[in-house]
Amino acid sequence: MVLRSPQDALYALVSDWPVNGGVHQQRAIDFCRAWLAGRMPAETVRQAFILAALEAGVTINDDEDGAEASALNPAV
């Protein structure tokens, strides 16, 4: 799955996440929703998503060079 924005991350965290109920998962969901409301910078959401992925054992490929990535890029 390629995630290009906090909105993509929110969908993944709510719909496709392999482990539900994690502390970091819920925090990342909250941060994604705050980003949608204009109250959270994308980079902060990205870091929260990475922690949630680590918590769930989800492998991420964080490629910030603009190529395809399976983690969030901060530019939105």
Task: Describe this protein's structure.
This is DUF982 domain-containing protein. It comes from Rhizobium leguminosarum. InterPro entries: DUF982. It holds the Pfam family DUF982. The chain is mainly α and 76 residues long. The protein has a domain at 10-56. It is 53% helix and 0% strand. It has helices spanning 6-16, 23-36, 42-56. The chain is globular. The two termini are 17 Å apart.
Key words describing this protein structure:
single chain, 76 residues, mainly alpha, 3 helices, 0% strand, globular
Number of helices: 3
pLDDT averaged over residues: 86
- Multimeric state: single chain
Q: What string gives the helices and strands in order?
A: HHH
The shape is globular
Work out the number of β strands: 0
Beta-strand content bin: under 5%
Question: Which structural class fits the helix and strand makeup?
Answer: mainly alpha
First-to-last CA distance? 17 Å
InterPro entries: DUF982
Protein name: DUF982 domain-containing protein
